[in-house]
# Entry
Amino acid sequence: MTWWRFSRVTSIDSQRRGRALLLVAVLCPGPPGLDAAQRPTILIRAGRVVDVERGRLVEPVAIEVRGDRIVAIRPDHPTESPPAGVPVIDLRSLTVLPGLIDGHVHLTIGPSDSAARATIMAGFTTVIDWGAIDYGNVALREAIGNGSVVGPRIAASGPWLGVSGGTCDFNGIGVRGVDGYRARVRNDVERGVDFIKVCVTGWPKVGFERPDSVEISAEELAAVVSEARRAGKKVGAHAIGAAGIGMAVAAGVDVIVHGGFPDQATLAAMKANGIAMIPTLTSFSPALGQPHGRALFARMDTVLSSGTPIIFGTDAGVIPHGRNAGEFGWLVRRGMAPLDALRSATTVPARWLAKSDQLGKIEPGYLADLIAVEGNPLEDITTLERVRFVMKAGAIIKR
# Structure
């Protein structure tokens, strides 16, 4: 293997789009202007690495990164020195994990540049953005992709899709009728969305007090799913009440966005068909002092232990950006093992994104998305709230 010298590049912290545009936040291996394929190989010496798939710590480990990929992993021998001139990142006092994935954010609620930066600095190198006005999340996805903004890679749904006058009708973007729903899905696809989000119910209070309440007809929902399938897009359903979740699962959506009140038959169908749920417990926690909040969390205890696939999600934008990792604590307090909570933010969403060969693990050939924390997150999940190092696709964002 050929080793190359390492150049440190310090970026300018831009708070507004249109000001100093740089590829990475703190430093990037290789001279300025090099794309990922041209960057030199670097060596990361990790005290411990979390093998998320097998549920174990491996220590110590040397990770070789070239360009945007992990190219080799081997035991790190403390007395062994790399060849002269090899750039080394010393993380021997830390635990290294795959970059985290937040399955439910809204980066354009508030200033999008600062939201994106806060999110990646917290260790979330990939997010799913489930709603924005005027396709703002699609535009932000492109800005991050071309280096104009520092932030996580984004999979974006575009605007919320819901009935006129309903829960997700923001600034008059709601629609009515089968033809209206079909037309919006087609327009979303033309505008470059990655997924479709459709709003089936209202919020938890309505789901608790009126479990049969829905905001969309079965025919309209079927039109959304069939039109999305025609375009090769997955569908996420904002569904919280029992009837709405049941309707969404029967229609064949791919994920239930938010926790809620699914009945046992619906839970069994979700598990059998691999339909995931994104609980967003942090955003719902202020309601714990009210009957509907207590009931929702009690129901989510059952969901988390049911074997239904769980994707980590925060609804960040509703909660402050950058505090995403607090959701891990809620998942563990409600009964998930720390390892399962960690998998919900790595391997599980990577599979859902059809990126399980690129994201969610530290293995050769995977994208070099790496974070580091003090301590052992398999024993203390709160360590993920204190991220010390972040690398996204081989570019160092936080050091």
About this structure: The longest strand covers residues 41-51. The chain has a mean pLDDT of 91. Residues 36-98+361-398 form a domain with the Urease, subunit C; domain 1 fold (CATH 2.30.40.10). The two ends are 26 Å apart (CA to CA).
